[in-house]
Give the backbone structure.
Amino acid sequence: MDIEPTHKLQDTGTQTNVSCCEIGCQTEVDIGSNQPYSSYGETMKSILRSEIISQIHVLLQKYSHSENVTTLLNDLTSSRKWKTIFGVPAEINVPEQDLVFLKKLAKDYEACKNKESNKEVRKQAAKLTTAIKIGNSKKSSAVSFDGSFTESAKTRIDAAESIGRITAYGAEKRRLLSIVAMDYPQSLLTDIFKCAKATVTAARANYILFGRGGVPPQGLKFSREVVSQDVLDSFTDFLLRDNISRPSSCRSVVVDGEECAVRYWQDSIKNVIQQYLLEFPDGVKRTYIYSHIPQNFRSNSMLAGLCDICEDVGYSNFANSIELVQELAQNSDNNNNN
């Protein structure tokens, strides 16, 4: 079966048409050639980038073997003519003292992931009987488990060290990251803190709502948006379309203790997801789709050869019958000759 690509960029001089999937679910999006890239939505930006990268890769392979494509691309982007036409990408210059601070903060960020240490902190906090007060002076402070100031401690810092940390909560990573989330590019933060882009976005929201390094009020928590049942139903209906997936006539698999018919994708998963995002821009996101692909869905490449039922019941018996008939015919000819 011939399957059209999910999206095609056609240079018409005035506009670009993006056509998707098979004829049954074809969707076209007109993009004006004079429209700035920044005006597109995130989904269309992703599609355009993927298409441009694919076309560049095909073009490079015409002039170089596959193992030398990377070398050729590096030479192109570092050449003087490339820089003259496209300019030089802006580099992220961070002062050395800022990098030192970011690395120290990243060390504390990594320590927040240690569940055992957080457990010990909570046990330490359970020993408190009164509130801790850190005043402007030693005399006006009360830093101890019982609310009094430890006489053996010379300073308030010494008294605090005698107690240790007494606060730990699940949003600690986001709170620490919010200290610098608005000051540096997202790519730099994800590289130093080894976190996802969504974590940086959440930290920036924490900064706006509660201040730099602020703690949310007690009882107020960040929560993920729950996908509505209508969105899930539309997503399920989309996957069950005949031009998206088709059921096998004889194969099935057991999923969570239940036997389910195997369904074969009619296109690559990447193209199917892009088609869904174009048709349902307010539906589930790409990450959700990849993490919730039904286990009974298979690629068409798995259709090679005969299934067990056809092999055992149909084809083998048919082949044996032909062999038997040929053997009988040969024996009959030999008997007639004799």
